[in-house]
Task: inverse folding
């Protein structure tokens, strides 16, 4: 489906809840499947990616009932050999987390994915898992992954990349390994796995800068999943750049390992405020108030903050086009390994709209403030986050734009257009 986006002459106003967090939804269904007993998860994501995790857990013999957005997982804590290949769709999180789980089972299976996922690097998980004794064969470290379930042993591992998917994969394998599995990463990535596993009774703890985990039995989970800060990011940026806007985004996950965008917006001088901060199942949650901010300034975004806003970089690039001065994004080379090469695709498509933006090896440089002309067709590269970022840019383009293959937003955020319409 191609979507035409017109300049928003009306400001964005009012308040809305943002749909369920994708990262938490994946983890909730996978970890509940490993627990013995009945788990109840409310506000499970409607996105296709978390649904891939759910369907795979069902293929592994777990009884999962879905009633609207509540899922009830009944498991005896033991996964069964699947009768066919396990299809992860577009979802890197499903493939990487499930590979960690499946490496330590007593059966063999195959994980497959769509074209984009089959092109993404899996060496980053195959290497540490192999050191633990996992037997995974693949062509050039890409999906399909043939997993031969084996006896695993804990390792001490220092990862050179800050990736929550790699970390979670190794920690999940550690749940089935003999001895202690210890993991350290260059910068802290999102820690939802650690928080949720601890809440479910896993023997997981920190020691000398390592996250350590031992073989553990998990208790069932009761959780109401909060709104996704990554989905919220499109509304934050739209609120900041569409003249006269004032919106409140409710029930958003504010885990400090995820909320780098809020720090950056504050540094840029944006009008953003957190209201009613609270805690749900160990995760920080709150409401976010955003107002139109015409005098924002460019900043440098690099180092430790990058994993805290990795999925938000395409829409932060849109924001930077509306900030005065230069925004430099560095240390983000892993963006090239996402659903599309997000450095290349973001720069190429925003340039078509009239942005002053160039790519570097590990990021991009944006000069603002630029009037975006629009009046062109842009590609989404079947990448949900790029499609949504281009939509936000379209709201401030002088002439309408056409975004190709917009339906890919369903990967994480099927409610996207409906919510924007509500605030217009
Ligand atoms: C995710 C981790 C990040 C992120 C992805 C979701 C997760 O990937 O980009 O959308 O839920 O663990 P990496 O671990 O590859 O950085």
Result:
């Amino acid at each position: 489906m191609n979507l035409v986006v017109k300049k928003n002459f009306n400001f964005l106003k009012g308040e809305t809840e943002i749909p369920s967090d994708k990262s938490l939804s994946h983890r909730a269904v996978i970890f509940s499947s490993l627990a013995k007993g009945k788990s109840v998860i409310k506000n499970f994501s409607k996105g296709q990616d978390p649904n891939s995790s759910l369907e795979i857990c069902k293929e592994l013999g777990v009884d999962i009932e879905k009633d609207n957005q509540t899922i009830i997982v009944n498991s005896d804590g033991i996964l069964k050999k699947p009768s066919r290949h396990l299809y992860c769709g577009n979802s890197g999180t499903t493939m990487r987390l499930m590979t960690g789980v499946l490496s330590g089972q007593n059966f063999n299976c195959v994980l497959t994915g769509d074209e984009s996922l089959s092109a993404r690097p899996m060496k980053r998980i195959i290497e540490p898992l192999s050191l633990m004794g996992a037997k995974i064969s693949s062509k050039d470290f890409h999906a399909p992954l043939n997993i031969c379930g084996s006896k695993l042993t804990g390792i001490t591992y220092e990862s050179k990349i800050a990736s929550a998917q790699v970390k979670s994969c190794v920690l999940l394998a550690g749940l089935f390994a003999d001895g202690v599995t210890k993991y350290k990463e260059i910068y802290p990535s999102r820690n939802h796995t650690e928080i949720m596993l601890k809440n479910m009774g896993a023997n997981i703890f920190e020691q000398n800068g390592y996250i350590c985990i031992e073989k553990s039995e998990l208790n069932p989970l009761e959780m109401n999943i909060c709104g996704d800060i990554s989905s919220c990011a499109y509304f934050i940026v739209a609120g900041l750049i569409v003249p006269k806007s004032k919106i409140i985004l409710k029930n958003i996950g504010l885990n400090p390992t995820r909320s780098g965008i809020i720090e950056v917006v504050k540094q840029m001088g944006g009008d953003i405020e957190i209201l009613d901060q609270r805690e749900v199942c160990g995760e920080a949650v709150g409401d976010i108030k955003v107002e139109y901010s015409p005098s924002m300034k460019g900043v440098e975004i690099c180092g430790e903050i990058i994993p805290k806003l990795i999925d938000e970089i395409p829409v932060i690039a849109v924001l930077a086009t509306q900030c005065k001065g230069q925004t430099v994004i560095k240390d983000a080379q892993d963006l090239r390994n996402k659903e599309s090469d997000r450095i290349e695709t973001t720069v190429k498509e925003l340039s078509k709209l009239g942005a002053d933006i160039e790519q570097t090896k590990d990021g991009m440089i944006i000069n603002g403030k630029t009037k975006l002309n629009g009046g062109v067709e842009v590609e989404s590269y079947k990448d949900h986050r790029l499609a949504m970022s281009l939509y936000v840019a379209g709201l401030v383009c002088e002439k309408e734009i056409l975004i190709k293959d917009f339906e890919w937003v369903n990967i994480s955020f099927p409610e996207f257009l409906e919510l924007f319409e509500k605030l217009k």
